[in-house]
Specification:
Strand order of the largest sheet: 5-6-8-7
Shape: elongated
Number of strands: 8
Number of helices: 14
Distance between the termini: 23 Å
Helix content: 40-55%
Structural class: alpha/beta
Largest sheet: 4 strands, mixed
Strand content: 5-15%
């Protein structure tokens, strides 16, 4: 199933996404984007695109924190469909300072200050038409135009510099990574149906919703295994304690617990009623901790004797575990 594929490629020290440098992460925006300096092959990015497409196809949430403009860029590059259905107009592929601000707000703020500066730009900033980057500890300069290293940034051409700078960071420098990613995605999600969605709706399908959690709704649709029937579930104190602990937790802790169970702290696009949590009985009271199988949205609980024992072991399991994610 797709969740198995997704989990496989999001875990472990040698897996391709988390540790191979395929993406770069910005701590301020908490978004990630393609790493222009990666050593990974195009096939790896094609595979990530396929997995993303399969996640949509199978209604599986992925914690892939791409900035919103990345989804606009993706839909803008969709293959032209010539079938009988009439598609909506596709978004235009643009690379603006506002796009950069979604991913790297501090850098975008600095460029905006350059545009707004009232003094002599050339004398104050001493910049040429080059991008300076750190490629695995080695500083490099990339010209933004022919002879860019000999073209100073002035009051007259600073808007051109910012435009070329942003386009290089968000488009030109990552074309080797984005093109196979795009092909992989559209190999699964091709056709006219995708053009009926807006970019923000595609993001919602991939990442899920960050709406506040309604624990009562999650409880209403939950299913149980190994608790001796419906009557047995209602008679099990540990079940009532679990939902009480879930409801009593703060918003951040609730999302952490949800991530422990499902692999994502977000709800499906269709809402909480479409997220079925399965709570299984693992046996009698023990010193062991609860366990989760995120591929199946399953939480395993023992029949702990007290609510405090359950609370202690549950939160220890949640906080001391290592989940999945793209960072």
């Amino acid at each position: 199933m797709v969740s198995d594929v997704v989990r496989l490629h999001h875990r472990g020290p040698s897996m391709l996404i988390a540790t191979a440098g395929m993406f770069v992460y910005d701590d301020e925006s908490q978004y990630c984007y393609f790493n222009p300096n990666t050593f990974e092959t195009s096939d790896q990015y094609f595979l990530v695109g396929v997995v993303l497409g399969l996640a949509i196809y199978n209604s599986t949430i992925l914690d892939v924190a791409l900035p919103p403009f990345a989804f606009r860029k993706l839909l803008a590059s969709a293959p032209i469909y010539t079938g009988p259905m009439i598609s909506l107009s596709r978004p235009t592929a643009t690379h603006t300072l506002a796009d950069l601000a979604e991913f790297r707000p501090m850098l975008a703020s600095g460029l905006q200050k350059l545009l707004d500066f009232d003094g002599d730009v050339e004398a104050t900033f001493c910049r040429d038409f080059v991008v300076e980057s750190d490629r695995y500890g080695r500083a490099i300069q990339v010209p933004l135009c022919p002879n860019g290293e000999q073209k100073p940034v002035t009051n007259a051409n600073r808007a051109e510099f910012v435009e070329l700078y942003v386009k290089y960071l968000l488009d030109t420098s990552v074309s080797r990574q984005f093109e196979p990613f795009k092909r992989g995605f559209f190999s699964v999600c091709g056709g006219n149906a995708l053009s009926l969605f807006r970019p923000e709706e595609i993001e919602l399908l991939v990442r899920g919703s960050d709406e506040p959690l309604d624990v009562s709704t999650l409880r209403a649709v939950a299913i149980y295994d190994g608790w001796k029937g419906k009557e047995g579930v209602e008679a099990e104190p540990v079940i009532a304690w679990f939902w009480q602990i879930f409801a009593e937790a703060g918003a951040r802790e609730q999302r952490t617990l949800l991530s422990f169970i499902t692999g994502s702290d977000r709800l499906p696009a269709m809402g909480a009623t479409s997220l079925i949590i399965k709570i299984s009985c693992l046996g009698e009271d023990t010193r062991r901790f609860p366990m989760a199988r995120t591929c199946f949205n399953m939480l395993g609980l023992y029949r702990y004797r007290t609510k405090e024992n359950l609370r202690s072991k549950l939160w220890t399991a949640v906080t001391e575990s290592e989940g999945f994610g793209l960072r």
